[in-house]
Amino acid sequence: MKPMVLAAVFSIALPAAALAGPASKAVKFFYVPEVKFEGDAKYRDRFTEPVTKLFDLNDQAQKNKPDEVACLDFDPGLDAQDFDQKTIAKTLKLAETVNGDTAEVTATFSLFAEGDESKREMLWSLKKIDGKWKVAFTELKAGGPHVLSIEGKNSIQVKDVLVGEVWLGSGQSNMAMLVQSCINLEEEKSAANLPQVRMFTVERVATKRLPRPPRVSAMSQRK
Is residue 212 part of a domain? Predict the structure, then answer.
């Protein structure tokens, strides 16, 4: 499966959200059946940096190695390769938040008529340049679970996939202490209701000890 264009969008102010408006119209264009590939050269004027730089890098990679798969997903606005266009058109809803010359548009839709796993919520970040709204980022909203489908000579499905932040924890031995060793184990177990948290524990490997240098006494230095 080809990776899609992802970027985190953070905003300090939180203006009131509105329903579809000028910024939403700029996003809705990419959900019409006629648009097969958002990164097509004829649509480049609808984007701005850093997306345009990613498109340029993708073009260069395809030129140098035309037999290899493209780096960009053909449908980054859908986060899917399999979908029913009629269902998307029927379920598509757009809402926007505008803050001066920047805007965020939330697109919600279903890929198919049935199944909660086909529901999508995409975030589009836009900038107003010369009076026109242009796409700066697109990302899949944190959450899930989703189904990751990989198509090739065979088909593979990975279920229960979540999208969100990845936190790395490291430190001294107390970082590896298990909850079952805590004095408030029962309280922690009863309060542990975190179905959307995934943990991956890296195997502990001791640091290799370096040989100590030979000791040199004051008497030996005098000799």
Answer: no
**Other C-beta atoms lying within 10 Å of the C-beta of residue 59:** 16
Q: Domain span at residue 97?
A: 18-163
CATH number of the domain encompassing residue 62: 3.10.450.50
pLDDT tens, the chain, 223 aa long = 444 433 333 232 333 344 446 899 999 988 888 777 777 788 888 888 888 888 888 888 888 888 876 666 557 778 777 889 899 999 999 999 999 999 999 999 999 988 777 888 888 999 999 999 999 887 666 777 777 766 667 878 788 888 777 777 776 667 777 778 888 888 888 888 888 777 777 777 766 776 776 766 555 555 5
- Is residue 141 one of the residues assigned to a domain? yes
Question: Cα dist. 128→30, 68, 99, 153 in Å?
Answer: 17, 35, 10, 43
In a domain, 36, yes or no: yes
Task: For the full predicted model, state whether its pTM sits above 0.90.
Answer: no
At 26, the amino acid letter reads: A
Q: Is residue 66 part of a domain?
A: yes
